[in-house]
Write a structure and sequence with these properties.
By secondary structure, the protein is α+β, with helices and mostly antiparallel strands. Helix content is 23%, strand content 26%. The protein is globular and about 80 Å long. It binds the ligand CCCCNC(=S)N1C[C@H](O)[C@@H](O)[C@@H](O)[C@H]1CO. It comes from Astatotilapia calliptera. Residues 35-352 form the Glycoside hydrolase 35 catalytic domain.
Amino acid sequence: TPRCTDSCLFRSVTVTILQASGERSFSIDYKRNCFLKDGKPFQYISGSIHYSRIPRYYWKDRLAKMYMTGLNAIQVYVPWNFHETVQGVQNFTGDRDLEHFLDLANQTGLLVILRPGPYICAEWEMGGLPAWLLQKPNIILRSADTDYLQAVSNWLAVLLPKVKPWLYVNGGNIITVQVENEYGSYYSCDYNYMRHLRTLFRFFLGEDVILFTTDGNTNKEMICGTLEGLYATIDFGTDTNITEAFARQRRFEPRGPLVNSEFYTGWLDHWGDQHAVVDAQKVSRVLGEMLTMGANINMYMFEGGTNFGYWNGADHDTRFRSVVTSYDYDAPLTEAGDPTEKLLAIRDVIKQFREIPSGPMPPATPKFVYGFVTLQKVGDISGLLNTLSPLGPIKSQYPITFEEVKQYYGYVLYRTTLPHNLSEPTPLISPLNGVHDRAYVSVNGVFQGLLERDTVLVMNVTGQQGDTLDILVENMGRVNFGSKINDYKGLLSNLILGKDVLTDWKIYPLDIDGAVTGGWPHGNSRKSDPAPRREPTRGPTFYMGTLQPNGLAWDTFLKLNEWTKGQVWINGVNLGRYWPARGPQQTVYVPGPLLSTTLPNNITVLELEGAPGHSRVLFMDRPHPLNFEVLHFLHIAALKIIISLTEFLDGH
Ligand SMILES: CCCCNC(=S)N1C[C@H](O)[C@@H](O)[C@@H](O)[C@H]1CO
């Protein structure tokens, strides 16, 4: 039984009695084409929520809002790489405490549809697979590749025994478990792989849980993704003929419940896209039609959350496209967990099919305009290598990858010297498109431009023979869907400068997160530039600042107006990437509980391309791009009112 407290001990006794009396069960009725919960017909109305995209202190808030919408279940991915970031070290604490999340869902009255992968897609870095799998150069991911299967077996041997006590039949709230994820959309179509997974899931979870698959709405996907003994479900969005889609599921499951495992309430954004939106009325109408057919529905996403740190994934169809930091997904609950009109429309539909919990919908969490903070320049990366790469460089005649230097996320600096005098601008080329994913090029610390995977394969460089050539390479997130998920990062092939192949590299893994969580650059010893010059900077540069406490720790949104692209940390927490120059996302969500109400809040920014001379950032109370100057005016006006009120009150 799950972690036992007194009430839990009582429950486990009760469960044992119920089990003995055969009352606690979750199964499929192939005659009445439905699920049975404790022997009674059951239709789940579920929503996807990813604990890995929400800070732990907000889990209960989001779950409560989903329950008050009338959902009776949630659908949850388990990202393997979130828990086993380092091979052989499994972490289930803090924001990774899966069992606490399951317990909160249970306490809230929500059943769980668990999707432990091992691959999950989800616009998550490498689809949830750990990057250390790429240590084997030709590993065939998501196949019967022996090294891949060994790693999968080791991982599931840790995860699934944790999950088993939480199965509904064992007193928990997990009603069904998905094997793999849309396997039919992958090229390998390896039935031995799926059979191996089926054996592992059955071995660790027993015979009493429903194992299922989910695949896209095409014959090819359903053929390669389904397997005997795993209940076949389908996924599709609002622009689908639902009769045809469920007829396709019926070809693979002639009897049993209709299930749409991912009914898309919105869609994902890549950097450079228009923000994706899906009409709320269309979502609620199609939801009603499917529920009327008696289908079981999971809405993907119900609460999207955030790709904190480096956890965003990417897609590679015609070209590499990195997913943005916000996983708002235009979902019924916003990235910050605020109920939307779409949620209310969905609740009105659900009301027609089941009783909605009485009581008010929990409100949006409070948001605060903390206003402007002026940052100070700390310095550019080339001058900070002792701090950021304390073990020094790896030397190599030709460039080697992130994976070969055993740094999987973030940034690596590649350094060499110019082989000749470049009196004329000279092309620096990546002939094999080997920059994965963006490279920021400086000579003697002076930024000269960038290269970008698939889109910018040449740029011009000038300098003198022997000058230092620094190339900072950024991992923008590994591909999470399709055949390119074995997505190595760094300089994957040689760079050509003019006619010369560049050689004799010093390669610096940059442990920025280790330095920042250790207090850098805010430590007492650290002084920012003595005379903070208000001039724009170009190239990879660190900034620091302090948001003074004001007794509040409310949500806020960080707007870096006129900044270009980079990474931001607050109080040592990596909030993710910003790229207002490309959009569509214009602000970075800052969960309130990250902030201190009494101590100065340390802000650290790595700007990769160009920072404005004012080096100011703004903490707003909403994510949408508002006119910066209007806000500046409002901010100053508000401060003046507060000052004059204070003076007035002091005077009396
Ligand atoms: C742009 C290609 C998107 C491929 N992913 C698809 S179809 N999806 C299905 C996948 O199972 C889910 O994890 C999500 O990744 C979802 C999109 O949000």
